[in-house]
Amino acid sequence: MRKVSQIIDGKRKIIKKPELLAPAGNLEKLKTAIIYGADAVFVGGKEFSLRSQASNFTIDDIKEAVEFANQYHAHIHVTCNIILHQENLEGIKTYLQTLDDIGVSAIIVADPYIMMIAKEMNLRLEVHVSTQLSTLNLKAIQFYQSMGMDRVVLGREVTFQDLKTIMEYSPVDVEYFIHGAMCIHYSGRCMLSNYLSRRDANRGGCSQSCRWYYDLYSHGQLVNKEDDIPFSMSSKDMTLVEHIGELIELGVDSFKIEGRMKSLHYIATVVSTYRKIIDAYCEDPDHFLLDHSYQQELLKSANRALCHGFFYENPTQQEQLFNMRDEHPTQEFVMRVLDYDEKTKLAKIEQRNYFKKGDRIEIFSPYHPHFSFMVEEIYNEENQEVQVANHPMEILYVKIDFRVERHDMGRKIK
Ligand code: SF4
Questions:
Q1: pLDDT tens, position by position, for the chain (414 residues)?
Q2: CB under 8 Å to 191, separation ≥6 — which residues?
Q3: Cα(289)–Cα(277) distance, rounded to whole angstroms?
Q4: Distance of CA 58 to the CA centre of its chain
Q5: Which site in 17, 279, 362, 380 is 20 to 30 Å from 288, CA atoms measured?
Q6: Are 378 and 299 in contact (CB under 8 A)?
Q7: Is 92 in the pocket of ligand 1 (CB under 6 A)?
Q8: CA–CA distance from 85 to each of 82, 200, 204 (Å)?
Q9: What is the pTM of this model?
Q10: Which ligand 1 atom lies nearest to the CA of residue 234?
């Protein structure tokens, strides 16, 4: 059992703070995740990684990521978690050696061959067992420890009860999902995409076939009627925002946020929310109260309905999106702040979605509390006043009376 707290100056404090581990699909998202409070970020390389569409990190990108992370004492984990076929074997040793040489902290693996060679090569980096292996019990964790693995990323199907047992005896670090999408099948054991779109889910090609809309037949009769919402097999996304304190008290080593395909806005919002909760809880665990605003904040970036996944027990129909529409975020990401001029009160911004004069924008930041303002003046780079910001990534200047900082973001209040 891990010692997680200690009395310091008459007050109990958490001394074993969990790592907050965020996803990133490109360098911009990675830097944002770290600036907004992630202790570590997991990325996919061009090779040997799932989520091939999200994995656009070249070796040079990973090198830059490591250098950036070092400035913030953060860590980079690289996913090497495809299920290898014969044709995927070539080049793996060179790839792992390169990741080690450039200072990657950990690789996340699913194939026993990569586990074996990573250990044989005596790499400095840690080797983490991917969630793709659906590790759900202590005996399996002990097996991976005997293989020299440093950490196990548990399957999302581990309940809180089982997690308690695991945390009491686990001989290696444990990583647990706290937020993000769920698979309707055990991770790593789904072939829906392979059958329906000839894209291999276990080699980075999942086409998310479970989320497609289907007509549902029973004994040849169409079950969902024409005007029904179409049937899909997808789950709601998971959030454990109400249970962060319990997970910290168990000594879970790393809290994982899912979503390398997710947007910059999503990553900034989710990471900064969990950062605040973890820090507040660890500072004063016995007086921590979960402010409702944290849940409200997460909903601003959620694009699907949320549930607790397997935390309590097996999910019911309520946790599925059978015949249900996706939810959409309550606010829309419209700008990223690049600079601010105190004298003119003009913020230099990069446009991310349509907004116009008269819209109310909420500014959120890793540095200061949220505030909102009404858009009254927008200028283009030629210093001409414009009425609408409707060109993606256009550099514009927006009048904001309160000081904003580089890396702040703005979202339109609907
Ligand atoms: S098809 Fe759906 S359940 Fe299967 S791997 Fe892809 S996202 Fe997961």
A1: 789 999 999 999 999 999 999 999 999 999 999 999 999 999 998 877 766 555 579 999 999 999 999 999 999 999 998 888 998 889 999 999 999 999 999 999 999 999 999 999 999 999 999 999 999 999 999 999 999 999 999 999 999 999 999 999 999 999 999 999 888 888 778 889 999 998 888 777 788 888 888 888 889 888 877 677 778 888 889 999 999 999 999 999 999 999 888 899 999 999 999 999 999 999 999 999 998 999 999 988 877 888 999 999 888 888 888 766 666 667 789 999 999 999 999 999 999 999 999 999 999 999 999 999 999 999 999 999 999 999 999 999 999 999 999 999 999 997
A2: 201
A3: 10
A4: 20
A5: 362
A6: no
A7: no
A8: 9, 11, 13
A9: 0.93
A10: 2
The DSSP output letter for 325 is: P
Q: How are beta strands 217-218 and 221-222 bridged, if at all? A: antiparallel
SS3 235: strand
> Which atom of ligand 1 sits closest to the CA of residue 206?
6
Cα 327 to ligand 1 centroid, rounded to whole Å:
19
Confirm whether 324 is domain-assigned.
no
Total number of domains in the chain: 2
The CATH number of whichever domain residue 345 belongs to comes to 2.40.30.10
Place of tokens 């999408």: 181
Instruction: Give distance in angstroms: CA of 210 to centre of ligand 1.
Output: 6
CA distance 65 to 364: 24
Q: Show which of 319, 348, 372 is a domain's final residue.
A: 319
Residues 19, 151 within the same domain: yes
Residues 301 and 265: beta-carbon distance below 8 Å = yes
Per-state percent for the chain, helix, strand, coil, to nearest 5:
30, 25, 45
Protein residue with its CA nearest to atom 6 in ligand 1? 208
For residue 179, being part of any structural domain is answered with yes
Q: Domain check: are 188 and 286 in the same one?
A: yes
* Contact 110 CB / ligand 1 (< 6 Å): no
